[in-house]
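Continuing the series of single-chain predictions for the mutant panel. This is the parent chain; the variants come on the following pages.
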Amino acid sequence: MLDAVSEESAAYRSQLIIYGDQPVDLPAKIKEKAIFRPGPPPAALECPGEITDATDTELATLRAKAVLPVVASLLSEDELEDLHLAWGAPPNERDVWLHLVARGEVFEDLLDSPTYEGGGELDAVTVAARLADRMQDWVCETAFAWGQLRAVDYTLPTP
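Parent structure:
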């Protein structure tokens, strides 16, 4: 499995990590610079876990205070098909994921994480601002709202 690919430049540096057996058909230039690791890639990749806002009160509160106002400002009721929040899968249990389906198109986003600068506090204002920025970009690229720059205009409920 390929983990990252790019060329070095003065501006950035990256690496190529290949998991599994070393392929014999790779060009020598790639073989000499790649990092080979035996076995499968790590299972602990960032992804949503199984605990959602349907059973977790902290996630349900964040959904009501930060997520719903933003979503309602960008999507109509007939566009929104599914929406839920989930804690991250181990070892990233404090990550907060959003899963949204609108007219058959899926938007999944890492809303908050302790690895973010100032993240992990589940601050409604910060989470709403992140979501508004990312979701506005996504909506204008969907088939149902192609090219529409929908204004994000929301008010968060008072605590």
